[in-house]
Amino acid sequence: MKNSLYVIIPIFNEEENIPKLMTIVNSLVQEYKYNFIFINDGSTDRSKELLESYVDRNHIYLYSNNRNSGLGFSVRKGINISLEKKADLIVKVDADLQHNLLQIPDFITKISGSSLDIVYGNRFSGGMKYKMPFIRKYGNIIFTKFVRFLTKYDVNDSQPGFFCITKEVASKLTLPGNYNITQQILIEASIHQYKFGSLDIEFNKRTGGESFINIFYPFKVLSQIMFLYFLLKPLQTFGKIGFLFLGTGLLIAVYQVIIFFFGTGIKPITNVNLVSTLILSGLNFLGLGIIGSMINANK
Predict the structure, then answer these.
(1) Would the CA dihedral through 237, 238, 242, 245 be positive or negative?
(2) How does DSSP classify residue 246?
(3) Scanning 2, 38, 224, 275, which has the fewest C-beta atoms within 10 Å of its C-beta?
(4) pLDDT tens-digit profile of 75-118?
């Protein structure tokens, strides 16, 4: 049976790219009958007006957010709409034409002919068509290594923005953050023990519109990754922090009690405030981890 495919494309102020983008989209609709869901994220230019002229309600759909709600919100919305439309496979791609949409069939072929649940793009295997800025390039490398450490998977590009997932994966995702959806998916997928692999993709220089990535972006992504990890693995994360605080407090207490009985200490526990703070903090973190695990189990 042929899989039902929906392609999600978030849009924010991309009027310069839409004509060329829609030429490619129409060619894919005609050849493969793919379904496209555009999420207009409160664009302030003519993006919505241009897209409305292409909507056909058979394969091309347009939904608009009341205001600019962020990439994460738009992708979550697109995934939910795709699931409501009984999608078997869901692809997410950017609207800025840095991705080659003609590679979508390659994603479908790879995920359909394997036991993989997720296929994500790898830009760094010869497909980079322009010289990525130094900070952005090495930021990608650092975050990819970090995601590889968290997931224990051999991730080779954690921020491509071009991926394909099955409906089973899509129905499990929470995606709480607004930045770098691919990282969130890979981390969540590893926690749920889904299988994923990569596909070499082209990555072109943006020729129109403006990127939302700025100097503060890495810090937003880092805080988002940590929040996601804490959210999905509360006992493993808060538990480790709790044991660290609790263990440190108990070691200090035991050490000071021992030196007191040997006659070198002034009183059994010299640093009462420090020890009590460490122990109570440790117990609080452990409690948070246990409560979080109970909530996840209840879900």
Answers:
(1) positive
(2) H
(3) 2
(4) 999 999 999 999 999 999 999 999 999 999 999 999 998 889 99
pTM of the entire predicted model: 0.77
Phi, psi of 273, deg, nearest 5: -65, -45
Please state whether beta strands 89-92 and 163-166 pair in parallel, antiparallel, or not at all (unpaired).
antiparallel
Beta bridge partners, 164, equal 91, 119
DSSP 128-141: B-S---HHHHHHHH
Q: What DSSP string describes 249-264?
A: HHHHHHHHHHHHHTT-
Residues ≥6 apart with Cβ < 8 Å to 252: 271, 274, 275, 278
- Of the candidates 159, 164, 71, the residue with the CA atom closest to the CA atom of residue 123: 159
Closest CA to 10 of 85, 66, 94: 94
Residue extents of the structural domains in the chain: 5-231, 234-298
Nearest to 15 by CA among 41, 45, 38: 45
Residues 6+ away with beta carbon under 8 Å from 274: 249, 252
Dig out the tokens for 208 from the structure.
């129109």
* pLDDT tens digits for range 230-241: 777 777 778 888
